[in-house]
Every structure is written in C-alpha cells, then in structure tokens.
Design a protein that fits this description.
InterPro entries: Homeodomain-like_sf (IPR009057), Integrase_cat-core (IPR001584), RNaseH-like_sf (IPR012337), RNaseH_sf (IPR036397), Transposase_8 (IPR002514). 64% of the residues lie in helices and 0% in strands. With 130 residues, it is mainly alpha-helical.
C-alpha cells in the first residue's frame, strides 16, 4: 500500500472541514484528493483526534500496556514453556489449571499479596449491596 503524503493531523483537519460545513467537493479540491479518498478517510477516521489517529497508525509497543506484557511473560515462562502439549485437550486442561492457580491460589504483590479470588470474595463480603 502506498504511503500517504498527508500526516494524521492533516487528515483530521480535512475531515473536520467537511464536518464544519464546507462541501466535500470544495474540501477535496483544496486538499487535492479524490472524493473516494475523502470518504475512505471519513469512514476510517471520522471523530478521531490527531493523537488518536497517530496511535492507530503505528505498530503497538510493549510499553503501551506494561501489565499485559508482564502477564504474557509470566504465562509464557510458567505455562507455555514448561509443558509439552500432546493434544488440544491436553493444552486446554493445562491452561485451565494454570489459570485457576493464577487467579485463585497464587498471591499477587500488586493487591497486597492476596489471590485475586480472595480479594473478590472480601470485596463481595463487605459490599453494601449484598
């Protein structure tokens, strides 16, 4: 796919002009784009700010969500790399056992060295809605 000569901010500005009342034909003429290009951009980017467009147009990075990256590392090291799955059923059983241990037995330092299941139970017991 050919790279656009327009920046994300320019695309957002072009779409915003049409949203503010300038005719599509006039916006396209000023920008030097076809109406098909305009409507493709509008379908993909309408309502997004330039910063949101930039986030969509770049590949994801591990620093975008450090929590999921930390979980993925633990899951890979403790479950996927530790087992040799012989069948799909075997994989499902091992993954479920690891998930139960992770959520119901294992203490997590981020929540006061409690297991998530304990935390949910204590929150449910102290909830005024029960």
């Amino acid at each position: 796919m050919k790279a656009s000569k327009f920046t994300d901010a320019q695309k957002a500005f072009i779409i915003k002009q049409a949203e503010d009342g300038t005719s599509v034909a006039e916006v396209c003429r000023k920008a030097g784009i076809s109406s098909a290009t305009f409507f493709n951009w509008k379908k993909m980017y309408a309502g997004l700010m330039p910063s949101e467009l930039k986030r969509l147009s770049r590949p994801g990075k591990p620093t975008d969500n450090a929590f999921i990256e930390a979980f993925n590392g633990r899951f890979r090291a403790e479950c996927l790399n530790s087992h040799w799955f012989m069948s799909l059923e075997d994989a499902a059983e091992e993954l479920e056992a690891w998930r139960r241990d992770y959520n119901e037995e294992r203490p997590h330092s981020a929540i006061g060295n409690n297991a998530p299941a304990e935390l949910m139970k204590s929150a449910h017991d102290t909830s005024p809605c029960t």
